[in-house]
Amino acid sequence: MSNIKFINQEHIPIEMHKARIVQKINLISLEERIKANNKASNNSHLLKNEDVFLDMLTDSGVNAMSDKQLAAMMEADDSYAGSSSYFKLKEKINEMFDMPYFLPIHQGRACEHLLSRVYVKEGMIVPMNYHFTTTKAHIELAKGKVIELLTEEGLKEESDCKFKGNIDINKLNELILKTENNKIAFLRIEAATNLIGGQPVSLNNMKEVSKVCRENNVKIILDASLISDNLYLIKTREKGYENKSINEIIKEISKCFDIIYFSGRKLGSSRGGGICFREEQDFLLVRNLVPVYEGFSTYGGMSVREIECMRVGIEEILDEDVISQGPIFIEEMTRLLVQNGVPMVTPSGGLGVHIDCTKFLPNIPKEQYPAASVACALYIISGIRGTERGTLSEDRDDNGEEHFAPMELLRLALPRRVFTLSQIKYAVDRITWLYNNRELIGGLKFTEEPETLRFFFRKIRAYR
Ligand SMILES: Cc1ncc(COP(=O)(O)O)c(C=O)c1O
């Protein structure tokens, strides 16, 4: 992003791209939004996109693509096996992450499925900074258990800590000390940790955790789905890295890990995903499952057009103008909301802005899903769709008891290069109005509750 200041000294994020293909969006009337929300059973995942004005549900697969990505899709080499598009991608990945082995896999959770199948066995644990919904589901389906090792700051909605995604090294050492040999399937670090507000992990923390893992023979895996936001935040927040290039920072990150996987829908702004391996032995274990679940190992369930697009998208994360756009817009939107008194997760991170709904609706208890209530209300008053990231995004435990999330967040994702500053200002205005009229919002209760990843297909209604 360009460092431009106006005459009045105002700093605003200036887009370093221009729009050449656009999509029309609709702002349907309030009455129509109420009907659409009822039809979707108060679940933003079940709304039709044509009924949504600003779609801030997620950044997955909805970041804007570049002209170069679209052009590369036309050159794709279509073949079941040995496509040259695959070899071009593999070469790019090897060069970026300095890892010799690579498998394309059709999306992030499919990588998690294969890694859990190979490494997680009944009774094993998987320590990590914090879980992601699909990661936890796959580990638990393989009968393993997630152990979270975030530092205390990570779970504070408001904090001065620049790296709230960091792992607490003392907790890690204690866990290793008290765990039987071979019971740790692997340790996972998630870049720009999604469910706690897109909060970054420092490179020094990755180095420290890696040292402990290697000293104790624990495999260490990076979920790099949101690495582009994390890279930018390391470069701008972490002492010692301000003068390093993004390429140098990626190389230092890679050295800390044995395996790196990612959702290409987030990283590289396209579709798909992939897993990089340092050791041939790990590569072979996972590769042998690919034809069973994904397809041949040179397309991994993806179209070759997506493979070409991913290659260009991944190369583009070396460009600071590209990777700064998300975090800078998120910072600006968070700043405007904080200025208007709306309780927010601070400092801002990657992926989107995160509203602290425990403070937004202090009278609605966790069992009435305050963040999902705010999500419904916001859609009704503005046509903006976000997603709940709190207790409703957790599944019940084996006894059917609620697992209360430590934070109740409404996430409004800002897919990269999609929204303009005037649209951000519209969102800020509507959220502020809702906050000032929050006594209108009540709680919710389930009418239909799936057992696994319940937030996707749940049906829910007003509590009263
Ligand atoms: C951190 C993280 N890991 C994994 C995934 C799963 O990726 P996908 O949506 O491609 O299955 C996501 C998706 O949102 C994510 O945010």
Give a written overview of the molecule.
The chain has 464 residues and is α/β, with parallel strands linked by helices. The protein has two domains: 171 residues, Aspartate Aminotransferase, domain 1 (Alpha-Beta Complex); 253 residues, Type I PLP-dependent aspartate aminotransferase-like (Major domain) (Aspartate Aminotransferase, domain 2). 39% of the residues lie in helices and 12% in strands.
Keywords:
17 helices; Aspartate Aminotransferase, domain 2; binds pyridoxal-5'-phosphate; alpha/beta; single chain; 464 residues; 3-stranded antiparallel sheet; Aspartate Aminotransferase, domain 1; 5-stranded mixed sheet
Distance between the termini: 47 Å
Tell me the major beta sheet. 5 strands, mixed
Number of strands: 14
Structural class from helices and strands? alpha/beta
Residue-averaged pLDDT, rounded?
Answer: 96
Helix content: 25-40%
CATH class of the largest domain: Alpha Beta
User: What is the overall shape?
Assistant: globular
Q: How many discrete structural domains? A: 2
The CATH homologous superfamily of the largest domain is named: Type I PLP-dependent aspartate aminotransferase-like (Major domain)
Low-confidence residue ranges: none
The radius of gyration computed from the alpha-carbon positions, rounded to a whole number of angstroms, is: 22 Å
Task: Please report which band the strand proportion falls in: under 5%, 5-15%, 15-25%, 25-35%, 35-45% or over 45%.
Answer: 5-15%
Name given to the CATH architecture of the largest domain: 3-Layer(aba) Sandwich
Task: Output the strand order for the largest sheet.
Answer: 2-8-7-6-5
Bound small-molecule species: pyridoxal-5'-phosphate
CATH topology of the largest domain: Aspartate Aminotransferase, domain 2
Please tally the helical runs, counting DSSP H or I stretches of 4 or more residues. Answer: 17
